[in-house]
Each structure stands twice: as structure tokens, then as C-alpha cells.
Amino acid sequence: MGDPAGIGPEVIYKALRNPRIQAMCSPLVFGTAGFLTGLSLHAAIGRQFHSVRSPVEAAFKFGTIDVVEVETSPHIRVGETSAASGKAALAYLEGATRAALRGEIDALVTAPVSKAAIRMAGFRAFVGHTEYLAEMTSTRSFAMMFWSKRLKVVLVTTHLPLKEVAFAISSEQILSVILLANDSLKKLGFPKPRVGVTALNPHAGEDGAFGDEDSRIVEPAVRQARKRGVDANGPLPADSLFYSAYNRAYDLVVAMYHDQALAPFKMVAFDEGVNITLGLPFVRTSVDHGTAYDIAGKGIASEKSLVQAIKLAVRLSK
């Protein structure tokens, strides 16, 4: 359910009342039914909620939303950042992750959480879904992919201050991400993916004028990927590479840091983008937006990203 004080409950409710979603999978919510019940009172089409203690008790009946109940504080207020909502969001995530590891569910789709709320709850080390799931599953080689029809990107680093990125990347890490991305695209129907790799610096370093990381770190990784049979090219200036990828010259872009990838991606796919964690022992997808506290509870949040995340999770599970 993500953060119950955000738009997670609303987009979940809207997505799961879609007959096509219920026809393609058996949806199960890890959260608190009360946050969905409140929404249903104002919905055009009512839904029943079936509270269960574990996935094996789920009814999976059309018109019913099964909810694995996780106890939460009664003091959570919609639209407000709080320790209580952060604690609830992490409890939902932990419950769903453990169910996935036990094989009780085939895929995990996550609604947005607030890192600030989770840290307010005392979990200071939490930096995001991706890193948390990697730690919970003891996954060493993992990456964050953002998927849309016209543009697909994978990050080498995720939630880091910009000043630390140059010190965090390595040829080994970049190569690992390129290989993960290439394998994932093959599973999704791309027989020989074309992978573009961004440079870290403007103009790919301009022969050392703007830094040597691209020739010293990025280029060797691309060279190794090509030796392993990957159709990889780079390091390429990010400003032109994203334009080329959007116009289908590349199937996927491997980017060095968060905003280098997410700024162009969200420009073209904000409502339909999907976040995928590569390398986990189970399928995990997510919306590509945040908790949107400012519109939570107003009934105007779009479920498009969640619908796409569910569809892609089903596709990957198959």
C-alpha cells in the first residue's frame, strides 16, 4: 500500500476496480483495509474488502479486494508526513517481501513511500525501496530500471548526493548494470538489445577537459560488455543520448546517476512510467511517482502508473 497517508490507497483502489487488472492476475494488498474502505464510500462502483492474515486465506473473487492486514497507528492523517505513516509503510513492505521470499506471491508491486516519514519512524538507514529490497533478499548485484514504451533507463547509482557519484562508480559496477539490463530486456522480448551508456561528465569529458572518469571508468566497462556480446555503446554525452534513445536508436540507456536518468524519463513518461528492480529473486515493479501528500484524499490522483506497473509485473512473472 505504500504510505497510507499518501495517494497509495487511492491509486490502488482505482487500479483494482479495473476488470482487466483482475482478469490478468489475483491482486492482494498488504496494508490496512480501513484506508481503502474510506475511499470506497465515495466511489462510483463499490467494492467489498476481505481482510486476511496471510496470502493463503485470500478469496480472490472478482469484486472483492483481499487485504493482508498489517496493524497501524490510529493517528495517521491523510496528507501529512508522520512517523506513524512511515512505520506503517515499512511494515507493509516487509510483510510483502517476506511473502515473496516464501513463494506465496509471484510478484511485488509497490505504491510510493516517503523516505522522510520512514526516517521519522526511526529507520535512519532507509534510502529507498531498491536498497531495502536488496538488503532483505541478500542481493549484491541489482539495479533500478525505469520503463516506458518510448524510453527505458537503468541507473548505476541510485539515491546518492551528486557530489558522491564520481567516487561511487566503478568499471565493475557499470559492467554489472549493463549485463543486468541486457538480460532483462531479452526476457522482455528484445533479442539483441541496443544499449547506450551515458558519460558522467558533459561532452563525455571532452578529452579530459571536464574530468577523466569517462575514459578511465566508463569506457572500460563498455568495452568489457561488448566483449561479452552486448551491443553497448558509450560513454556518450547524456544530452544527445536521451534524444537518440527516445527516437528508437537505442532500446535502453544506462545512466550514471539518479537525476541524469529521471529528469528526461519523467518528462516523457510521468503518468505511465514503471520502476523495476533488476537482480532480485522475485519480480518487483513500482509506480514512478511519489506520495503526493498535497492531493492525497482528494480523489484526483491518477492510477495510470500503477496499472502499468501491475501489467509489467504480470508480464515479467510469465
Itemize the secondary structure elements and their pairings:
Layout: H1 8-16, H2 19-24, E1 28-31, H3 33-40, E2 48-52, E3 64-69, H4 83-101, E4 107-110, H5 115-120, H6 129-136, E5 143-147, E6 152-155, H7 162-168, H8 171-187, E7 194-198, H9 213-227, E8 231-236, H10 238-246, E9 252-255, H11 258-269, E10 274-278, E11 283-287, H12 304-317
Parallel strand pairs: 1-3, 2-3, 4-11, 6-9, 7-8, 7-9
Antiparallel strand pairs: 5-6, 5-10, 10-11
Helix pairs in contact: 1-3, 8-9
Element-by-element helix/strand order: HHEHEEHEHHEEHHEHEHEHEEH
Helical run tally: 12
Derived structural class: alpha/beta
Rough outline: globular
CATH architectural designation of the largest domain: 3-Layer(aba) Sandwich
Beta-strand percentage range: 15-25%
What characteristics describe this protein?
318 residues; alpha/beta; Isopropylmalate Dehydrogenase; 2 domains
What would you say about this model in short?
It contains 12 helices and 11 strands.
Structure description:
By secondary structure, the protein is an alpha/beta fold. It folds into 2 domains: 1-139 and 280-318, Isopropylmalate Dehydrogenase (3-Layer(aba) Sandwich); 140-277, Isopropylmalate Dehydrogenase, CATH 3.40.718. It has 12 helices and 11 strands. The strands form 2 sheets. It has an 8-stranded mixed β-sheet, sandwiched between helices. Strand 7 (194-198), helix 9 and strand 8 (231-236) form a beta-alpha-beta unit. Helix 1 crosses helix 3 and helix 8 (171-187) crosses helix 9 (213-227). It is globular. The two termini are 23 Å apart.
